[in-house]
Amino acid sequence: MLIFILPLASLVIIWWTVYWMGLIRVLPSPIEVAGTMVSRWRILLRDLGSSAVRIAAGFCLAMVIGIPVGLLMGTNRYVHFLLRPILTLLLPVPTLAWVPILLIMWGVGDQTIIFAIFLGGFFSIAYNTATGVRGIDQDLILAARIMGASRRELFAKVLLPGSMVSVLAGLRLAIGYSWRALVGAEMLAAASAGLGFRVFNSWRFVAVDVMFASLVIIMAIGFIMERFLVEPLERRTVKRWGMIRV
Amino acid sequence: MKQGIAAKLEARHIRKEFDDGDSKLLAIEDINLSVRESEFCVIVGPSGCGKSTFLYLAAGFEKPTSGDILLNGKPVKGPGPDRGFVFQEFALYPWKTVLGNVSFGLEIQGMKKEEAKETAEKYIETIGLQGFENAYPHTLSGGMKQRVGIARALAYDPEVLLMDEPFGSLDAQTKKLMQQELLRVWSQTRKTVLYVTHSVVEASFLADRVVVLTARPSKVKGIIDIDIPRPRSYTDEDYLDVRERILGLLDEEVARAYRKDQAGPESTPPEPS
Questions:
Q1: What CATH class has B1-76+194-270?
Q2: What pTM did the predictor assign?
Q3: Are both A29 and A124 inside the same structural domain?
Q4: Which of A142, A148, A243 is opposite residue B109, by nearest beta carbon?
Q5: What is the DSSP string of A65-110?
Q6: Which of B59, B136, B273 is facing A146, going by the closest CB pair?
């Protein structure tokens, strides 16, 4: 619990200090932002809801496609040969650069945003999974083969758990990337709601407090996803199995 | 093949070349070998001679360049559950408990979960690991890990047990204990065992028959039958005599392999993978 509170408290203290010294003119005080969060809770909750649905959809898509693609890349020489250069080329393209193209294809709306989130998360998940599979001790694969494992069993029962350390690292990165993609895409492609949309929209009304309230929520959600999704998964898998040091 | 005694596992003119595109390496020139039912057969040879490669061929992990390996008279085409394999580095699944590791092969082969658990528990007890069913491998010592490795390979009742320097990474005390344990389990199950080691002490302690391979490219240098009753004593005169005979064969080859290494920059054989 202390690990949870300490960084949070220090962040608020720094914020307070900066505000109190008047270093950044537009910066609202933490209390002001907290007040805004209370008074505008309805609209912020709606934004949170829209963003949460989009991120869930986009992130799940990235996971459901990224992990199998990574497993295939890690096991099949030809798939690896084919996909690796493509991924290497696409990896450095900022997700936001795709959004205008997506806007032409699908226009403003959820489809564009969800696909941007997918793009944000997909690469790191696929890449890390592939790396993980290639690092699996060859004997573990041979042992399964001599016991008669089919290809499907090999994937599900050996390659996936065996690459779990890397898969989790990929998911962790993907959470960060897909949030960035979400907020950016919502600025460009959300018609009416979403945390990214709210930040951008508040700019027009110079509602700095709302901007900050949205930012705080974005930070909190990222933190919660890491804390309540990746960490428990890690504890239940690779830590328990002794695959990483505790 | 001797009259009346069927060969369980037979190697006929096995030759294995590794070819990595621009250079070829002849690992095995010609190995002929016949292992009888319930026999404990140990292969020894100088390091890098291709004895592990031969075991990988028997497992079906690699294909011979020419020649056949026959199991019960039928050619080996690839890996399959009629063989059990015990790895030097254990190769246990870290995400599975002891029970999960041992029952893995049974479940893959379609045994019902309850039945697989029962069978696995039986083998865990045989190998002396009762009480550790729910432990994860990373909490076990090296000797215990290899007990799991052996139980896992025996649990689905393969025709032969292939063992690749199974105690090579254990300390001397544990190694001795594990050798005795292995003989105890073997005398209970009467499995046909093909066992690879570089240790002559180990070979002469364990084997019904010791096959000495030459330095690379390997051929069979000599076969020594050991009919000293078990348990054998390390100080017994017959035992020491057999050990000397094996050492005699092997020493020439080790010296030859050494001279060859000194002679020229020849690439070392790739580890079987």
A1: alpha beta
A2: 0.86
A3: no
A4: A148
A5: HHHHHHHHHHH-HHHHHHHHHHHHHHTTS-HHHHHHHHHHHH-SSH
A6: B59
